[in-house]
Amino acid sequence: MRTEEPVYPASAKPLIGERTLTALLTISMAVSMLQLFLVGTLSPRLMADAGISPTVLGLTATFGFGAASLFSLGAGTWVDRFGARRCLIALFVLTAVALALIGSSAGAVTLLIAVTLGGLPQSLANPATNKIILAQVEPARRGAVTGWKQSGVQVGTIAAGLPLAALAAWTGWRGAVWTAAGISLLIAVWAWRALPYAPRVDPAAPSQAQGAKTPGVAVLAAFSLMLGAGISSVNTYLTLFGTQRLGLGPVVAAWLVAVLGTAGFAGRIGWSSAAGRRERAESLLIPLGIAACTAGLLLASSAWFTPLAWVGAAGIGAFGVAANAVTMVAVVRHAHPSRAGRDSGRISSGFFAGFAVGPPLFGLLVESVGYEWGWVLVAAEFAAAAAVAAFGLSRLTRPKPA
């Protein structure tokens, strides 16, 4: 397929069509974060069987996403240097190892080691998939393909909330996690056979260092920090909120995560397609942040009127989760191919840092003053993201003095 500046050599023809490539990239995003989605969805069983406390549950996100944030600072350079194909295969193998450790864990220490290791595939996901899109998808289709592959994160939440949660009810939570590990290894084989080979590239070489610095990356990283803090709290505690505060059974409470994932899936595709048709995709971040804030307040209100929990979960998926996809559309739209990995890594680092700090703060509020104030905190984080976008974008679009 035509690109302005291919990352792969011209002789490296795609071995699969665009639809199959999009499916593989979507699955890559789903698998990269599956370990933490499973920990959140299976949290009632983990707490009962492995003695995991609410605070430790919050620390799983801190360790996992904290590691992902730190690894993301270098992951873009790794992808630029070693190639997206190699890094994508490594993503699946590392995820399988992390899932196997989770399934074998007998307490908090092993669980925290496993989710820390899981930070590596998370850090590789966006740089590798964005690099492949720039190499293999023609410009007019990049926004739509980016939206589909970003929706893969929601495929992961759906998989954790529906089939794997149901499997856990039949085989136990360990059987569900081990099954997910085996599937990840099978997908690694598929990626190894399907993706074209690309030679190593030295990102310091002159031919690779001529791209101008991408404007707005720092703003997008700061926006992603606040956005990630809110989303991670919802992912981690929504099922537990359903069982402990709303009185739902474990399976029904897991459906809240499935609603979040389904709405996020549709929202990422829809909003990314809309962003791809705009000259400035990032202009959508302000209204999306405000809408996500409103959805967080609905979750707070659901403590008194349960049906609002379903509306709030859907709203956070459709607007808050979708906003992350729009940031990646902006990167794919504006980044020079030689900087795509590094720019994606910087934004992902901010997003994962938010994922690391959000759940512990939420957990402290829950233990001290209850879930209602935890959801108010989530709403405030989304509002702060919208404010960062509004301030940062106004500076970017302000005319420079003569």
Offer a quick outline of the entry.
With 402 residues, the chain is an all-alpha fold.
Features:
single chain, 402 residues, mainly alpha, Growth Hormone, Chain: A, disordered C terminus
Sheet with the most strands, sense and barrel status: none
Cα-to-Cα separation, first versus last residue: 42 Å
Total beta-strand segments: 0
Residue share in β-strands: under 5%
SSE order, as H and E?
Answer: HHHHHHHHHHHHHHHHH
**What is the fourth-level CATH superfamily?**
MFS general substrate transporter like domains
Q: Which spans have pLDDT < 50 for at least 5 consecutive residues?
A: 1-13, 199-211, 397-402
Work out the helix count: 17
Helix content: over 70%
> Number of domains in the coordinates?
1
**CATH fold-level name:** Growth Hormone, Chain: A
Write down the overall geometry: globular
Can you tell me the CATH class? Mainly Alpha
Name the average pLDDT: 83
GO molecular function: transmembrane transporter activity
Membrane topology: Multi-pass membrane protein
Keywords: Cell membrane, Membrane, Transmembrane, Transmembrane helix
Subcellular location: Cell membrane
